[in-house]
Each structure stands twice: as structure tokens, then as C-alpha cells.
Design a protein that fits this description.
Elements lengths: L16 H13 L6 H13 L4 E5 L2 H16 L6 E5 L4 H9 L3 E5 L21 E7 L8 H10 L3 E5 L7 E2 L2 E2 L6 E5 L12 E5 L2 H11 L18 H10 L14 H12 L1 H19 L6 E2 L14 E5 L7 H10 L5 E2 L7 H7 L7 H9 E4 L7 H18 L1
Helix pairs in contact: 1-8, 2-8, 3-4, 3-6, 9-13
Bound molecules: pyridoxal-5'-phosphate (PLP).
Length: 400
């Protein structure tokens, strides 16, 4: 088969004329820190995800880091307390638990959705468990009904890591509206792309207040943005001036700029088009790859759970005599980019921290050894998808 002359990536650069104009507008007004674009982006993002507050930050990891830190501070968690975390996820979900002095306790994942398996959560709960990190992987919400039930029964908080999932509903309710705090990423190759960026969302005013402070060096909430000392009466101005350089907790510098928010606003305006194209592309790939379903487990989602298809995950089935590595290499050699399906426990750093524990999580182990994803982003053409499918077909023709 004839090899395509460029790489078909798992993500794409997709910056519209309007987005360029918005960024230019930011530069012309010379307002780079928190301003009208960030404010609007936060308001619209919060509304779209059923939350009262959205805080725009410089990454999804920063969002998760301050989400856990705020819960630890407000709820009085102690060092060494435990947070349940899926055994398959991007390292950041679990890293932030460790970096906050807490202990991630892993839970195996569902073999069809690859999200945390609610049937396996309760067996991991101890006296020290404080929260569940529910991760919405590859564009698909975790099974939130049983997770909410377990959290309520055991008085656990929920952090929803929705870095890979936006603008979709789980049984009629927006993904990202279930967590006490929910976090999102707008990093390259995600659904909305602002270069770097992320959100912490919540409907709890206390959590929002502490997270804003944590993202701003631990500052007193009276002065977080450069407009906070404007248009005040004498008494108000006195209050701000006397407290605006007060730092009341240890914090971080996690703010994003108006330029990222400008890109984000532009992308929000065409989110339906972006998601619509992704869903259509995923449906096309599913249909075309279906004849290979005896070898490959293709994406699946239950009826009332929408999928935003950040990626198109595939796992080589057991006992079919195909090695993932051979298939992945064939795709890569033919310019179809792939990524591992977010192995966590097999990472060198996790082996160093926790030892060889992968065997305790058989589904995660199967996914780690046999799973990978390809792109289904909005800029893929039919010709490119036909080519991707042809590469798969060609591989299987030669091997089986
Ligand atoms: C599940 C998950 N959590 C967290 C993150 C971290 O987001 P960021 O790269 O914006 O820090 C990612 C990013 O890829 C992710 O996929």
C-alpha cells in the first residue's frame, strides 16, 4: 500500500480566523492578565458544565493540584489520608494526590469503558479514605450513578478529572457537574485547545475561594486581579490597600493569560462544530473498523452516556495471536500516530514508588499491555480516515 506523505496525528492544530482576531485584540489592548476574555471564558465554561464557578488556570494538572489542596485544607484531611484513583489514567490524576501528601489507592477499571469500575470501589475503602478521583477518560464520562451512591454512603468527596471530556452528558446531566470539584484541560490535542490551560470548577463558594487563592500564591481573596482596587469608595480602597499584599496560605502561581482565554472563547463559539465532527469521525471509524472487531475491542459507550471522543481507544483482544506492539509499529511506520492508552502502574516512576503492583489490577494490566489510541479529531478528512482503515486492513491481511 502507498504510504501517506505526512503523519496523521492524534490531535490537530485548529485555530480559526476569529481566534486569531481575539488574540490580536488582547495584544492591542495590552491587557495580558485576568481581564474580560478570562472572565467570559470562565462564565461560559461554568454554565456549560453545570457549575457555579470555573477558574481558568495554566493547566489541567494545576487545576487538579489545587482541587485536592483545597479539599485537604477545608475538609481537614491529614497527610497519608487516602484518595481512590483508577488504575488506568494519565499520571497527573494520581501525581497530584501524592504531591498533596496523600496516598492514591488504585481501583481497577471497567473492561469496556476503561473508566474506574464502581463494582470495585468499596473493597478499597478504609478508615482513611477521603475521596474518589473519578476520571472521564478519552472523552467518556465515568459511571457516576454508583460512584455518587458510594460517595454518599461513605461520606467521600468526589474530584472529577474531566481533563479529557467536555460538553457531554451522563444520563442527561453534564459531565463535570458531578464532582465536588471538577477539572478540565485545554492543552494541545484536547477538545478545546488553548496551548496550555485548564479549569477547576465547583458550585461550592468556599472551595472556589480557596482555589482562587491557591492559584494566586495563597493571596487574600480581597485582591486577586488588577481591577480589584478600582472604583471603590475610600473605606473600600483602604481595605484593599491594607490587605492586597497579604498571603494567607502557601500557594502556587497557576494563572493563565488573556491570550489563552481569547483562544478559548473562540473555540467555545464553535464547540458544537468541533464535537459534532469528532463524533461523526468516530462513528465512521467504528463502522469501517467493525470487520476487525473479532481482533480489536473498539470504543463503546452505554446508551445514555455521551462520548466526546477526545481519542479513539482500541484494545487488542485476548487470544487472537496479535501483538499490540506489531500493530502499533505498523501504524506508526505508515504515518498513523498512536499513543499508549494511559498506563499508570507500569510507569517507571510508579514502579519505583509502589513496586510491581500491576498484577493486582488485571483489567488495567490488559489495557496497559494491549491498548492504544488513534485520533478522531475534527480536522481528519474522509480520505485520511479511509487511509487509516486501509493500514489496519493491510496489517491484518498480512498477519491472519
Ligand atoms: C486524564 C487527565 N488528567 C490530567 C491531565 C493534565 O492536563 P494538563 O496537560 O493540562 O496539565 C490530562 C492531560 O492530558 C489528562 O488526560
Amino acid at each position: 500500500m502507498r504510504k501517506i506523505g505526512y503523519q496523521i496525528g492524534v490531535g490537530c492544530a485548529d485555530i480559526s480566523k476569529k481566534e486569531k482576531e481575539y488574540v490580536k485584540d488582547v495584544l492591542e489592548h495590552e491587557r495580558l492578565s485576568y481581564g474580560p476574555y478570562t472572565k467570559k471564558f470562565e462564565e461560559e465554561f461554568a454554565r456549560a458544565h453545570g457549575c457555579r464557578y470555573a477558574i481558568f488556570l495554566n493547566s489541567g494538572t494545576s487545576a487538579l493540584r489545587i482541587a485536592v489542596a483545597a479539599l485537604k485544607e477545608i475538609e481537614g484531611w491529614k497527610d497519608g489520608d487516602e484518595v481512590l484513583c483508577p488504575a488506568v489514567t494519565f499520571v497527573a490524576s494520581s501525581n497530584v494526590i501524592i504531591m498533596n501528601g496523600l496516598k492514591p489507592v488504585f481501583v481497577d477499571v471497567d473492561p469496556r469503558t476503561y473508566n474506574i469500575d464502581p463494582r470495585k470501589i468499596e473493597e478499597e475503602i478504609t478508615k482513611k479514605t477521603r475521596a474518589i478521583m473519578a476520571v472521564n477518560l478519552f472523552g467518556q464520562p465515568a459511571d457516576m450513578d454508583p460512584i455518587l451512591k458510594i460517595a454518599k454512603k461513605h461520606k467521600l468527596k468526589i474530584i472529577e478529572d474531566s481533563c479529557e471530556t467536555m460538553f457531554v452528558k451522563y444520563k442527561g446531566r453534564p459531565a463535570g457537574s458531578f464532582g465536588d470539584i471538577s477539572c478540565f484541560s485545554t492543552y494541545v490535542a484536547h477538545l478545546l485547545v488553548t496551548g496550555v490551560g485548564g479549569f477547576s470548577c465547583t458550585s461550592n463558594p468556599k472551595y472556589a475561594e480557596v482555589m482562587k487563592s491557591l492559584a494566586n500564591h495563597g493571596r487574600d481573596g480581597i485582591y486577586l486581579h488588577i481591577d480589584d482596587d478600582k472604583n471603590l469608595n475610600k473605606q473600600g480602597l483602604f481595605q484593599v490597600v491594607s490587605r492586597r499584599f497579604h498571603f494567607i496560605r502557601l500557594g502556587y502561581s497557576f494563572r493563565a493569560t488573556e491570550m489563552e482565554a481569547a483562544l478559548g472563547i473562540g473555540q467555545m463559539e464553535r464547540k458544537d462544530q468541533i464535537l459534532g465532527a469528532r463524533k461523526k469521525n468516530a462513528a465512521y471509524l467504528l463502522k469501517k473498523l467493525k470487520p476487525l472487531a473479532q481482533y480489536l475491542q473498539l470504543p463503546w459507550h452505554p446508551g445514555r452516556v455521551e462520548h466526546s471522543f477526545m481519542m479513539f481507544p482500541i484494545v487488542v483482544k485476548r487470544g487472537v495471536g496479535i501483538k499490540k506492539q506489531d500493530l502499533v509499529m505498523y501504524l506508526e511506520e505508515h504515518n498513523v500516530e498512536t499513543r499508549d492508552m494511559l498506563p499508570l502502574l507500569s510507569q517507571p516512576v510508579y514502579k519505583k514508588l509502589f513496586g510491581d503492583i500491576e498484577n493486582q489490577y488485571p483489567v488495567a494490566k490488559w489495557v496497559n499491555g494491549n491498548g492504544f489510541y488513534i485520533g478522531c479529531h475534527q480536522k481528519l478528512t474522509k480520505k485520511e480516515m479511509d487511509y487509516m482503515v486501509a493500514v489496519f486492513e493491510d496489517f491484518f491481511k498480512k498477519r491472519v
